[in-house]
Amino acid sequence: MNHLFVGALIPFLIGLIVYAIKKGQVSVPWLLLMPIFMFIGATWAVIPDLPRTFGSILPGLNFFGVDWQVLDAKMASASNPWIDIFFWHYTINLHESTSPWFSIGFVAMLILLFWVAWRELRKTEQPKSQPPEPRT
Amino acid sequence: MAHSTLHFSLGWILGSLVFFVSSLRIWLNGRASDWFKKWFIWSFAFGVFAVVPGIFLSLRLPNGFCAGWWMNVFVLHPLLDELKPGGITMGPLLLGACLGGQYMLIVVALWYAKRKK
Q: Cβ of A114 and B102 within 8 Å?
């Protein structure tokens, strides 16, 4: 979970900076791109674990002729520092802990994303306040 | 034992169904943001309700109590544990589909509201 969290956190923080610069105004493309980039970030962060995952889910299949186990051995994240290109996967594995805070953080990001979308909808639906008519 | 995301997803779906039936008036007359707010509350409340026996277990209450038939009140929790043990792949996928669908609907509603404006 901590890899997923770190992977999704980076695009989320960039989006949050954009949100702050635009003073809480977001467009529909921003709302569409944010979860897509978070998904790409989270997927990028777990790439070294994917051969093992697919190997356990689909043991009979292979990846373009290469066995999942062979790919997993190539990835062997615990002994390859270059795997840090996947959002510090190697370093995180070295200091891995099973804290529930990663799951809580991930859920908090999703809730915040929903809230931003809902807030934008609310603002759009609110009628613009009319200036008071001048007294005659 | 089924994965907690599977329980949460089923609770989420049930909450959404209950809400849809009871909210036709808001859908037809009210603002979409009110409708979405209520939908979030209903679906997430039912989702949390469905994982209550799991929360009891993590609080170290006796297994006999947490797996008893009376726990079926919490969106058929023990029944689902028996029918679909595990579900570590299916649970997050189902939850992702539920939340992704909900998010897409709110973005579509926003796009429509901006266009109408």
A: yes
